[in-house]
Design a protein that fits this description.
single chain, TIM Barrel, eight-stranded parallel β-barrel
């Protein structure tokens, strides 16, 4: 018999190339978070990547809006860049925006984030893992609720979402259903059921990576090609299978 409390687990997969977006969707991902530079925690992808991803995958594509790596404290010029990037993302047919900003004291930048949310409308707005860098998660959650954030991507302020499962459960109760939590941080197939059960969160975020191998035959005059990280598609497929098992 199906356990009604463990049905409909949605898997969002973070990628930083269009081929990886296609591979993730083919493996069964329910939603794509498209970024650039995942090695830097994710930044805004190009318009070409956004248009190509939307054209080539048949699941929703959310896009990271972040002008650089590093912290989440942005000046007026950077906020302006983010607003322009949101407008461009909407023109590219993107289905949701992932962004957010903090103040120097670790509180949410309400003015900056509100501007981002207004620019994103009517698309859903996910406040990204800057949330976990805030000084107080309960305070940050209440601010997000007041601003009209649609989702929060969080590990519950811990190194992994599984370690933060009880915190996620408490945050979920506090939302009262007014926004959705997306559990992210070290999410993998072997502990997916435990995470969903302990946290009560039904949207899970993962982006398993491993070193990619160049198919170039020649290294050129400056030496071998530098290795990079690509999507571990088999781990995505395993997580999809584990999510399907929860609904059986």
């Amino acid at each position: 018999m199906t356990n009604p409390d463990l049905t409909l687990v949605l898997l969002e997969v973070a990628v930083d190339t269009v081929p990886d977006a296609i591979a993730a969707a083919t493996a069964g991902a329910h939603r794509i978070e498209l970024c650039a530079n995942l090695a830097e925690g994710g930044t805004t992808p190009s318009a070409g990547a956004m248009r190509a991803a939307v054209a080539r995958v048949d699941v929703p594509v959310f896009v990271m809006i972040r002008p650089r790596g590093g912290d989440f404290l942005y000046n007026a010029v950077e906020i302006d860049v983010m607003l322009r990037d949101i407008e461009l993302a909407k023109q590219c047919g993107i289905h949701g925006i992932v962004s957010g900003a903090l103040q120097p004291n670790g509180t949410i930048d309400e003015e900056g984030t509100e501007a981002l949310i207004e620019a994103a409308a009517p698309l859903p707005f996910t406040f990204h893992r800057a949330f976990d860098q805030s000084r107080n998660l309960t305070e940050a959650l209440d601010t997000c609720l007041g601003l009209g954030v649609t989702r929060i991507l969080t590990s519950g302020g811990r190194a992994t979402a599984l370690e933060g499962a009880e915190v996620l459960a408490e945050l979920g109760r506090r939302t009262g259903g007014r926004l959705k939590l997306v559990a992210g941080g070290g999410v993998r197939a072997p502990h997916l059921a435990a995470l969903a059960t302990r946290s009560g969160v039904r949207e899970l975020h993962l982006g398993p990576r491993r070193e990619a191998t160049s198919q170039m035959k020649a290294s050129g005059s400056v030496g071998a090609w530098r290795a990079w990280q690509g999507l571990a598609v088999d781990e995505v497929a395993a997580a999809v299978a584990a999510a399907d098992d929860l609904a059986r």
